[in-house]
Predict the structure.
Amino acid sequence: MTGTGRKMINYIINSAKVTLNFTKHIFFTGQFGLDYDNTTYTTKSSVTRILPVVANGSFVITWNYTERFSVSKMNRGQVRFAWADVGNGTNRYFANNQYSIGYITGTGVSATSITLPGSLLPGSLKPERKREFEVGINNSFFDQNRLTVDVSYYTNNKYDQIIGLPISASSSSSSLKINAANMRTWGFEFSVMGSPVVIKDLRWNITINGARQGSKVLGLYSDLQAYTYGNLINNNSGAASIRADVGRPFGEIKMYDFVRDDNGNKVVSNSGLYSLDAQKTIIAGNIMPKLYGGILSDLRYKSFNFRIGLDYKSGGTVFSYTNMRMTGLGQLSSTLQYRDEKSGGMAYYIDAAGKKTGWQHNVAAPAGAQGGRVYHDGLILPGTKLDATSHYVTNDVITSATSYYEFYANDLASSFPPDRLYKNNYERCGYTFHKLLVCH
């Protein structure tokens, strides 16, 4: 009834490497290999082999141009060209189609239920492929190579990527494992190392490196134009999702926009709060950083080495579900605003019809105010509202700070505010200490 999947460990059945030297300053290195990646899907009647062979190839051409002509203060100068076409197999147990067996109770009969796998493997697959080209330079300058600069540009194309293609829930499964995605990425990388201190037994190197990458989804499957790479809240609600849409950069965050008037102003509802437009999505950010890299400090004295490293990321939108929930629950210091008169809250009372009406902080509640109370946590959100003639006018509806912040706690697809996104610079510090003992 069920099929079983199995994956063998990869091993190389054939490989070759060639290195050639032309005119003492041009070098060619080429490599080719065949990897055997045996993923099988077995039933009682057949055995299906998936990704049987993965071919990999690459070459690098290096030109040491300072061997041909000299450059002032330059010790070594290199230009390199590299090309590679490699494949990738699947993970262990990828081909397993596991069925769940349960029992239905309360029917008066002994009934068994069978649940299909969430993701189905319909048949054979091709290996994922990546084709890349790179060009770069590596130059060192001054005595004892006190300055080294390495800069490269690359472009690659990942195709036949294996993804889970969404299918109708009526099939009892959520997706099919197929070859579909085709994406191009490009960018540059740099590394600069300087040595401000170089004496007999002491050398101090400071290295700064970084990379910037762009991407574009070239195709998915057949005429499919949009793909949800992952949902940020409420599983498949669609309120906030990471996208891989054709013609767009990978990693864009799409969210519902606010309801807006013809001039782009946010429209406030009768409750005094904004509403989301479930028919319109906006690009609220991208999860990919614009620049990332590190800074290293290496201090070497005789046989001792001391290193301090710092990683950095600049750009990239981070969605913090924790901050969103804590804002809605009033557990962050930012939610103190508007809570009282001191924090900027407006004074108001609630009339017999339940409408919040502006008042003064130091004046008693008028007759007819519910509970005879004056509240001090009011605010008016900037935007417009519809008046009795269905025209947009400046908003004057008062809402409470409690209602305003609770709005953030409700993460349903129709009420999550898309401006609660956070940008974060990631930092990490550490050091390693090496003591080398050399016996003579």
In short: The CA atoms of residues 125 and 250 lie 23 Å apart. The mean pLDDT is 81.
